[in-house]
């Protein structure tokens, strides 16, 4: 009786007993995660590009006319953008582990995540130390640092 009922259910309601792969749900989720990962990577790249342009603007502005340039404040501006971009890149890496098909890829992504997290930690630490040194010296901050 139980086998007959199971066969009847499979014939009449195949979508209820179908696997996610058969329904295309798994492929749809993987595709959405890949698009989200691409979006996060793009946002990170745009943030880095923006930071380079802004820091470059302040650098050239300080060089013309030539004066005693404090590069540390300009480095702080760029460092803030890099730290933010690293957060987005790390988010993209975490999404990659959700759809990684092998342990090898998960290991590589884990190593990348550790490296990016360490970079972000030391960048944040350097920014904090530089901010403290700048405020103790009484130097005027650039507009982006306020």
Automatic annotation (TrEMBL):
Which named protein is this? DUF1622 domain-containing protein
Looking up PANTHER family in the UniProt record yields:
SLL0939 PROTEIN
The alphabetized UniProt keywords are: Membrane, Transmembrane, Transmembrane helix
Q: Which Pfam families match?
A: DUF1622 (PF07784)
- Transmembrane feature ranges: 38-60
Respond yes or no to whether keyword Transmembrane helix is given for this record: yes
InterPro entries per UniProt = DUF1622 (IPR012427)
């Amino acid at each position: 009786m139980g086998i007959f009922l199971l066969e009847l259910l499979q014939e009449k309601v195949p979508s209820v007993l179908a696997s996610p792969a058969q329904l295309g749900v798994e492929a749809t989720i993987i595709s959405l995660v890949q698009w989200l990962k691409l979006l996060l990577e793009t946002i990170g790249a745009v943030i880095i590009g923006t930071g380079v342009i802004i820091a470059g603007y302040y650098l050239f502005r300080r060089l013309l006319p030539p004066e005693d340039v404090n590069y540390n404040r300009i480095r702080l501006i760029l460092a803030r953008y890099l730290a933010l971009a690293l957060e987005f890149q790390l988010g993209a890496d975490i999404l990659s582990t959700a759809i990684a098909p092998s342990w090898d890829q998960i290991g590589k992504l884990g190593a990348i995540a550790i490296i990016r997290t360490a970079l972000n930690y030391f960048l944040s630490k350097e920014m904090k130390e530089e901010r403290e040194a700048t405020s103790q010296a009484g130097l005027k901050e650039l507009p982006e640092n306020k």
